[in-house]
Write a structure and sequence with these properties.
39% of the residues lie in helices and 17% in strands. The protein is α/β, with parallel strands linked by helices and 328 residues long. It folds into two domains: 198 residues, 3-Layer(aba) Sandwich (Rossmann fold); 107 residues, UDP-galactose 4-epimerase, domain 1. The strands form four sheets. Strands 3-2-1-4-5-6-11 form a seven-stranded parallel sheet, sandwiched between helices. A three-stranded mixed sheet has the order 12-9-14. Helix 4 packs parallel to helix 5. It is globular, with a radius of gyration of 19 Å. The mean pLDDT is 96.
Length: 328
């Protein structure tokens, strides 16, 4: 297939591009490189641009014979979304609608949307099922949910078919060691732990040790980025085969606490990780875990890198050989 990947120079998007290329799809990446990296894209044509540029979108969709879109381009920091909701509604919703309109105009009717399990808000049950109510507690989750709502109505009106994939924390790196996570600022737990191991940070801040969890620290869902990429491609190929629009959760089904991640990282890197304990951060739920039974049943998806140690080992391979990310 000829596939357009928006945000394909970012962390998850670049791994999805690699998986598409491995499966012999022809890929065009559209990325404004505000967060992504040119060096993260290989085997695909990279076009520097924005989904707000409808003229460029029309040119790409028609000129490259695009048959389907994987949409990763978005702002994705929860705290930042609370401080700047206007940016998040503009980047995640308004620009998303620009993409949908361009797809409809070009006759492209298949979209895989990189959504988030943050659409659920405070969970009433864990693992969270797809049927769980959606009451997001921050603009990030709200803007993703708003675009999901648009997808439904665009489907009704224009025949757009979509798969919306909801997940929490991507982790790890491509096992080859040449493609991984490079964010500025970095907010994800595993790369922060590994930065401490590399001596780039003096210690790791652990926020809250009095949660109602086995060790008192927050439990979060981690899923290997290559498994996420595989799920996106499976969803794309299912749509190409005529599958109906749907929503899938992606998660490990159990989750890991902050202290479990730290201990596993210490075992992987072979040294202690200094920590500094601090008070809880406002708005941090005790446990966030999504279930993946629906996509396992529906698409036969199975994670290849399920263990926490494997996620950290692949991340360590990347970070230890690229301490400055794609800069070296």
């Amino acid at each position: 297939m000829n596939v357009l990947v928006t945000g394909g120079a970012g962390y998850i998007g670049s791994h999805a591009v690699r998986e598409l290329v491995r499966r012999n799809h022809h890929v065009v990446v559209l990325d404004n490189l505000s967060k992504g990296h040119e060096a993260a894209v290989s085997g695909a044509r990279l076009v520097r641009g924005d989904t707000s540029d409808r003229e460029l979108l029309q040119e790409l969709l028609a000129g490259d014979g695009i048959e389907a879109v994987l949409h990763f381009a978005a702002s994705s920091l929860v705290g930042e979304s609370v401080r700047s909701p206007s940016e998040y509604y503009r980047n995640n919703l308004v620009k998303g609608l620009s993409l949908l309109d361009s797809m409809v105009n070009a006759g492209v009717r298949s979209l895989v949307f990189s959504s988030t399990a943050a659409v659920y808000g405070e969970p009433r049950e864990v693992p969270i099922p797809e049927e769980h109510g959606t009451v997001p507690t921050n603009p990030y989750g709200a803007t993703k949910l708003a675009l999901e709502g648009a997808l439904r109505w665009y489907g009704e009106a224009y025949g757009l078919r979509y798969a919306s994939l909801r997940y929490f924390n991507a982790a790890g790196a491509d096992p080859a060691g040449d493609l991984g996570e490079d964010h500025d600022p970095e907010t994800h737990l595993i790369p922060l732990v590994l930065r401490v191991a590399l001596g780039l940070m003096p210690h790791l801040n652990v926020f809250g040790t009095d949660y109602p969890t086995p060790d008192g620290t927050c439990i979060r869902d981690y899923i290997h980025v290559s498994d996420l990429a595989d799920a996106h491609v499976l969803a794309l190929e299912a749509l190409a085969s005529g599958a109906a629009s749907t929503v899938y959760n992606l998660g490990n089904g159990s989750g890991y606490s902050v202290l479990e991640v730290i201990r596993a990282a210490e075992e992987v890197v072979g040294k202690p990780i200094p920590v500094q304990y601090a008070a809880r951060r406002s708005g941090d739920p005790a446990a966030l875990v999504a279930g993946s039974e629906k996509i396992k049943r529906g698409l036969g998806w199975r994670p290849r890198f399920e263990s926490l140690h494997t996620m950290i080992e692949t991340a360590w391979r990347w970070h230890s050989s690229h301490p400055r990310g794609f800069k070296g």
